């Protein structure tokens, strides 16, 4: 049987999980990436990589939770170093109503009192009276994870083509387009959602899991990365502005981190970045069969979490023609 060849356009988290899954299945792969350095032009480069099916599921999206839980199991069984330490959601005492509202809107949590919060995150001792703990959730350091997926794919025979511009691709049996906003010309429903983040470094505080701070105006999350780095993120703005982080947004992000713990006031600011998340009308990623391509797009805030599930469903379609109607749609559906 002739080995099928697959082109993958884009080396963000969607493209990399596609590459890993299909390389492992024995397909011959070419990965086309527009940047000359892997990942740096993708929205995934700026991700917090929280694998948080409960915290990220909005009440208006009940179909997202079962997909997210299925994807989380694929992360558990995958090749990457994933921290299954849960998620801690906190709020200042004056904003306890925010915590109570979040409790009502989500599932999969335990309500913790201050002693339990301090036992779970000793560096937060005495700072928060109540918290919600989502014990089934996880997180991963995004940039090492992306590099590992790429390395594994190349080791299995995938070819990486960097600095590729335009639409000149070698002939292939299938083309999988994962370019995010770069595919907007082919996907009319796609829209950009701006996100901003900071990377800081501090040796004065330790966190074992993502911490989400609820606030009526400036909610944020802090994700621990290796080597005393922390990613601070929050903003979701309906905008196509790819410009640098605005001063107000930067102050709000860093101020929110400081409000979680004053030790962050002594942290080094390593990076302030902004990017555009590709999003579809219902904010749920989708596989779309259109124009002789398989589009995998619409990551919104769920790209890292759902990437392995989307890759598994593309493999099923290519291998057997199976269609998961929750995720995969033909043009016009």
Descriptive report:
This protein has seven helices and 17 strands. The protein is an alpha/beta fold. The protein folds into two domains: 142 residues, FAD/NAD(P)-binding domain; 138 residues, D-Amino Acid Oxidase, subunit A, domain 2 (D-Amino Acid Oxidase, Chain A, domain 2, 2-Layer Sandwich), CATH 3.30.9. The chain has an eight-stranded mixed sheet with strand order 5-6-4-11-12-13-10-14, with helices on both faces. A seven-stranded mixed sheet has the order 8-2-1-9-16-15-17, covered by helices on one side. A hairpin with a 6-residue loop joins strand 11 and strand 12. The longest helix is centred in the last third of the chain and has 18 residues. The protein is globular and about 65 Å long. The two termini are 33 Å apart. The model has no long low-confidence stretch (mean pLDDT 93).
Précis, in short:
By secondary structure, the chain is α/β, with parallel strands linked by helices.
CATH architecture of the largest domain: 3-Layer(bba) Sandwich
Q: How many individual β-strands?
A: 17
What is the subunit organization of this protein?
single chain
- How far the N terminus sits from the C terminus, by CA atoms, comes to 33 Å
**What level of helicity do the residues show?**
25-40%
CATH class of the largest domain, anyone? Answer: Alpha Beta
- On the 0 to 100 scale, the average pLDDT is 93
Largest sheet: 8 strands, mixed
What's the helix and strand layout?
Elements: E1 5-9, H1 13-24, E2 28-33, E3 50-51, H2 64-77, E4 87-90, H3 96-105, E5 110-113, H4 114-120, E6 130-134, E7 138-139, H5 142-155, E8 159-162, E9 174-177, E10 191-201, E11 211-213, E12 220-225, E13 229-237, H6 247-260, E14 268-279, E15 286-290, E16 293-297, H7 303-320, E17 328-330
Helix pairs in contact: 1-5, 1-7, 2-7
């Amino acid at each position: 049987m002739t080995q099928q060849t697959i082109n993958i356009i884009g080396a963000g988290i969607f493209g990399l999980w596609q590459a890993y899954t299909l390389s492992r299945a024995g397909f011959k792969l070419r990965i086309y990436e527009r940047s000359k350095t892997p990942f740096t032009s993708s929205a995934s480069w700026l991700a917090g990589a929280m694998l948080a099916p409960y915290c990220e599921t909005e009440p208006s999206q009940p179909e997202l939770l079962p997909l997210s839980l299925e994807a989380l199991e694929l992360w558990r069984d995958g090749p990457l170093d994933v921290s299954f330490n849960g998620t801690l959601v906190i709020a200042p005492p004056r904003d306890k109503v925010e915590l109570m509202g979040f409790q009502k809107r989500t599932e999969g949590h335990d309500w913790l009192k201050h002693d339990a919060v301090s036992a779970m995150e000793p560096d937060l001792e005495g700072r928060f009276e109540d918290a919600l703990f989502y014990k089934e959730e996880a997180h991963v350091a995004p940039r090492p994870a992306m590099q590992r997926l790429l390395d594994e794919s190349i080791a299995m025979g995938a070819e990486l083509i960097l600095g590729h511009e335009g639409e000149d691709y070698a002939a292939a049996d299938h083309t999988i387009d994962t370019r995010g906003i770069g595919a907007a010309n082919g996907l009319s429903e796609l829209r950009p959602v701006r996100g901003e983040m900071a990377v800081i470094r501090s040796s004065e505080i330790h966190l074992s899991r993502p911490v989400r701070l609820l606030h009526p105006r400036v909610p944020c999350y802090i994700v621990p990365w290796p080597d005393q780095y922390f990613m601070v993120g929050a903003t979701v703005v309906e905008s196509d502005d790819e410009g640098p982080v605005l001063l107000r947004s930067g102050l709000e992000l860093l101020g929110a981190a400081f409000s979680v713990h004053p030790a962050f006031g002594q942290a080094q600011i390593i990076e302030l970045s902004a990017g555009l998340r590709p999003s579809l009308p219902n904010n749920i990623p989708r596989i779309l069969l259109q124009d002789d391509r398989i589009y995998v797009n619409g990551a919104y805030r769920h790209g890292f979490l759902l990437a392995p599930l989307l890759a598994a469903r593309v493999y099923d379609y290519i291998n057997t023609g199976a269609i998961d109607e929750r995720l995969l749609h033909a043009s016009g559906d």
